[in-house]
Design brief:
2 domains, 6-stranded mixed beta sheet, alpha/beta, TIM Barrel, 22% strand, single chain, 418 residues, elongated
Length: 418
């Protein structure tokens, strides 16, 4: 029985997720991070548009012992998905059963809530679903008081976003954590310029983080985990040796948090070669089908505001997908005098086996886009069209519209196939 408001008719735009590629990307990141450094697999923002539950399960099966989510609601979804597959119930919150420092039960899948706690409802959900929140304010600690959960403290070392500063502010937070019956499980920070090799900003952030960890040690506090960095840190950083040394100073284990690399992408490296880019493969393929094919005479305008005019006879295919689905409006190509620019493209396969590029012409509208298939024989109604994948990546979309692959992937609204 279908729920009210749903339809048995398939979506005109859909997403295919390659779980084998996801697992292989995770393996590649693990190898790059080094044997002594744990990798937290980030599945926040619906796993960067790839489907939180599906990716959480796939990554856990691939060996991930830590998953990262934005909030308690995402954490609950991830935990329920893991439990449904009988992967693990997660770590106990009891201090008596806490593993030794630097050690983790091989069956554990920990879930880190990376963006804090906002309400008592979220705090209760964190306790109920055995999640581990990142905290940095007294108010967050008070929301968690008496719930006996593990927490990670985030240090503000130069990102200018969330976290507490080393020094008196940190001292004023750590004591209430113990008084609230919480367990200090980890300490972390986030680098603002990790993709820039040899960044002085990153070096300064490292110095501040070292000071914060040393301050904890002086207070007799020994977190199990010390983590910093993201996919770019693994890709172009100076290796895990620094982080391992910092962790070792308090008897903890080092961990990095990888997100975008798991899904096949990294930010462009600045000042050095990317170690990961050539090895990673996109996990998401986004597809649609040809809705119509027609001949367009020379001089005919295509789309809103007539931004594209056929300069000679053309053959165009109409696609039932637009910006409401996540196909960015800026991908449309124009050739009018005021704004002549190349847009994006899609991949089509006509009578030949090889996929061919078909430029997007005219404005991308809410539910429709038009592509030039002149010279591609055999394109017909119902043919599959690749909007994202190996032939047209999120990086390609991002370069055309002036953004980053993260935003492109998170904006895709194609239906996930089972």
């Amino acid at each position: 029985m279908r729920a009210a408001g749903t339809s048995s008719v398939g979506s005109r735009s859909w997403v295919e997720i390659d779980e084998a590629r996801l697992a292989e990307n995770y393996r590649i990141v693990r190898e790059a991070a080094g044997d002594s450094t744990e990798v937290l697999a980030v599945v926040k923002a619906n796993a960067y548009g790839h489907g939180l539950e599906r990716c959480a399960v796939a990554l856990a099966r691939a060996g991930a012992r830590w998953l990262g989510v934005a909030d308690a609601a995402e954490g609950e979804r991830a935990r329920r998905a893991l439990e449904a597959e009988e992967l693990t119930a997660g770590p106990s919150t009891s201090a008596a059963t806490q593993p030794s420092l630097g050690m983790t039960d091989s069956s554990e899948v920990n879930i880190l809530v990376m963006c804090g706690v906002m309400s008592s409802d979220e705090a209760n959900a964190i306790a109920k679903h055995r999640l581990t929140p990142v905290v940095w304010t007294i108010e967050q600690v008070e929301l968690l008081r008496g719930l006996g959960v593990r927490v990670h403290v985030e240090m503000e070392t130069g990102m200018g976003r969330q976290g507490i500063r080393p020094g008196a502010d940190l001292d004023g937070l750590l004591r209430p954590i113990a008084e609230a019956g919480l367990m200090l499980d980890g300490v972390c920070t986030h680098f603002s310029s990790a993709e820039v090799a040899g960044s002085e900003r990153t070096r300064e952030q490292k110095r501040r983080f070292e000071a914060a960890v040393a301050q904890m040690k002086e207070m007799g506090l020994k977190p199990r985990w010390v983590h910093a960095g993201n996919s770019s840190s693994v890709d172009v950083g100076e290796g895990a040796a620094w982080l391992e040394d910092v962790a070792r100073s308090v008897g903890a284990r080092a961990m990095v948090r990888s997100g975008i690399a798991l899904y096949g992408y990294v930010l462009p490296a600045v000042g050095t070669e990317s170690k990961l880019r050539a090895k990673l493969k996109p996990v998401m393929t986004w597809k649609t089908r040809v809705l119509d094919v027609r001949e367009v005479p020379a001089g005919a305008a295509i789309g809103y505001s007539a931004t594209f005019t056929a300069r000679q006879a053309m053959r165009v295919a109409l696609l039932p997908v637009g910006y409401s689905d996540g196909l960015r409006r800026e991908l449309g190509g124009s050739n009018d005098a005021a704004n002549e620019r190349m847009g994006g493209w899609v991949m089509v396969r006509g009578s030949e086996e090889e996929m061919r590029r078909a430029p997007i012409v005219g404005r991308v509208s809410m539910n429709l886009a038009t592509v030039d298939v002149t010279g591609i024989d055999g394109v017909s109604v119902g043919d599959e069209v690749e909007l994202l994948g190996d032939g047209i990546t999120a990086d390609d979309h991002a370069r055309t519209v002036g953004t980053i692959s993260y935003e492109i992937l998170c904006g895709v609204k194609g239906r996930l196939l089972d």
